[in-house]
Amino acid sequence: MARSKEFDERAALDAAMQVFWEKGYEATSLSDLTARMGIQRTSLYATFGDKQSLFLACLAKYSEATMAYYQAKLQKETTIREAIRSCFADIIAAAYDAKPNRGCFSINTMVELAPHDPEFARITRHNQTQLQVLFQQAIERGMETGELAEKLDAAAVSRSLVVYMAGLLVTLKSKPEREFVEDSLSTLLQLLK
């Protein structure tokens, strides 16, 4: 008779994601993972596979939650301009409120692993593309309602927003003056006129 698992897979995956998020992929050891997850190595391998497979599962979970968050955020506000401003304002607020500021798990992965691992480069590019599509759909809605100018190139503006977001998340790791970052956001929002 097969033994039932004695741990909650979702909770273990969340715990693993926290370790990877805090330390990065390379600096995280299997001992770090099993200690935080509260499981033995054999259970880790049997349930999640090797370290890279576990990391990929964590990244997929994070990406799914992040995309759902931004999709809801871009539909929640009364105006598209405010929805987009709010997405970035939340990132800025979180960076200055968080102790420590761990940044974005996906962007951290892009910086640490994508330059030398084609699989992580592909995944992080896919995440950026998904976000770009969400921004583009929001901008197109704003153009259809007349809130945003019809002359806008929704694809180009949405790509600019994604590039700005990635740069913002990396920049915030060094805790620049908040006014510096908020001024850059004001300038960025000029694209939406």
TrEMBL record:
PROSITE patterns: HTH_TETR_2
Any Pfam family hit: TetR_N
Family matches, as InterPro entries: Homeodomain-like_sf, HTH_TetR, Tet_transcr_reg_TetR-rel_C_sf, TetR_C
Domain HTH tetR-type stretches: 6-66
Protein keywords: DNA-binding, Transcription, Transcription regulation
DNA-binding region of this protein: 29-48
Record GO terms (molecular function): DNA binding
Keyword Kinase: no
Domain of life: Bacteria
Protein name: Transcriptional regulator, TetR family
